[in-house]
């Protein structure tokens, strides 16, 4: 018979569990943090899709400035700028954007804005170029408080571009609300613009450093 070995030390033996190394502990924390980040990002993405008006729109409210800047793109932007001009919000208007600069100026004049207070910048092809090409004109005219007029879904990115390129000036946003309300008959046509605005926000942040927050 095989003899059993006895514990002659007088101490009870302790069964040890698996050893958790620092590497395993770090890996577990890493995956928990990663899943939490993914969950938060997915939640934010759903919120942004469900509530684009609240996420994309920046309206500075009832303020006045030295100049209005109308960005090309239609969607009632020139009409909104003319409305603000008639309310005495700013004494001058700068129109920027290639392709529809002349038509926007014509809309302004039809809606009561005198030609001698309008400045044209007809070459900008992007929102960043709108800002880059308009800022020297604004400086030349001595504008310090500038009000950006664009579509509601474009207002966050537009304002961020101007603030990024000229942090010494004060910029505000008074957007057009055409297509803002779901019950408006023209709202369906804005869904595509709204959906592609999110990738543009991220793209401008990554490529140009224009932070939309």
Q: How would you describe what is shown here?
A:
This protein has 213 residues and is of the alpha/beta class. It folds into 2 domains: 22-54; 58-208, Rossmann fold (3-Layer(aba) Sandwich). The protein contains 7 helices and 5 strands. The chain has helices at 22-50, 52-56, 77-86, 101-110, 127-140, 155-165, 191-208; strands at 67-71, 93-96, 118-121, 145-149, 170-173. The protein has a 5-stranded parallel sheet, with helices on both faces. Helix 3 runs parallel beside helix 4. The radius of gyration is 29 Å and the shape is elongated. The model has no long low-confidence stretch (mean pLDDT 84).
Keyword list:
single chain; 213 residues; alpha/beta; Rossmann fold; 5-stranded parallel beta sheet; 7 helices
Quickly count the helices. Answer: 7
Terminal CA distance reads 80 Å
Helix content: 40-55%
**Which CATH architecture of the largest domain?**
3-Layer(aba) Sandwich
Widest sheet: strand ordering: 3-2-1-4-5
The low-confidence parts are: none
The mean pLDDT is 84
Rg, Å, rounded: 29 Å
What general outline do the C-alpha atoms trace?
A: elongated
Classified in CATH, the superfamily of the largest domain is: HUPs
In total, how many domains does the architecture comprise?
A: 2
CATH class of the largest domain: Alpha Beta
Strand content: 5-15%
**Structure summary, number of beta strands:** 5
Structural class: alpha/beta
The SSE string, one letter per element, is HHEHEHEHEHEH
State the CATH topology of the largest domain.
Rossmann fold
Biggest β-sheet, characterized? 5 strands, parallel
């Amino acid at each position: 018979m095989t003899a059993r070995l006895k514990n002659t030390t007088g101490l009870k033996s302790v069964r040890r569990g698996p050893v958790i190394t620092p590497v395993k502990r770090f890996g577990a924390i890493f995956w928990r943090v990663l899943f939490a980040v993914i969950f938060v990002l997915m939640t934010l993405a759903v919120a942004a899709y469900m509530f684009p008006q609240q996420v994309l729109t920046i309206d500075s409210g009832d303020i006045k400035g030295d100049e209005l800047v109308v960005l090309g793109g239609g969607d009632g932007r020139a009409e909104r700028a003319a409305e603000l001009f008639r309310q005495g919000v700013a004494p001058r208007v700068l129109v920027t954007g290639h392709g529809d600069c002349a038509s926007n100026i014509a809309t302004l004049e039809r809606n009561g804005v005198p030609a001698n207070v309008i400045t044209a910048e007809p070459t900008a092809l992007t929102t960043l170029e709108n800002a880059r090409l308009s800022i020297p004109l604004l400086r030349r005219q001595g504008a310090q408080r500038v009000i950006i007029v664009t579509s509601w879904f474009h207002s966050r990115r537009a304002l961020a571009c101007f603030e990024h390129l000229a942090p010494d000036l004060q910029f505000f946003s008074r957007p057009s609300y055409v297509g803002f309300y779901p019950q408006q008959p023209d709202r369906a046509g804005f869904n595509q613009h709204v959906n592609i605005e999110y990738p543009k926000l991220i793209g401008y942040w990554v490529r140009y450093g224009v932070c939309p927050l």
